[in-house]
Specification:
- This is 30S ribosomal protein S17.
- There is one protein chain.
- The chain has 35 residues and is an all-alpha fold.
- The N and C termini lie far apart (50 Å).
């Protein structure tokens, strides 16, 4: 059985992961430009 809290945590984790991926997409090209 899943409690609403665990599902809430899962969705927030997915959101934070998406934010990290978006940041990586911005930061990684910058590294290549520096090289």
């Amino acid at each position: 059985m899943e409690t609403p809290e665990s599902t809430r945590k899962e969705t927030s984790n997915k959101k934070s992961k998406a934010v990290v991926v978006r940041k990586a997409e911005v930061i990684i090209p910058a590294f290549y430009q520096v090289k």
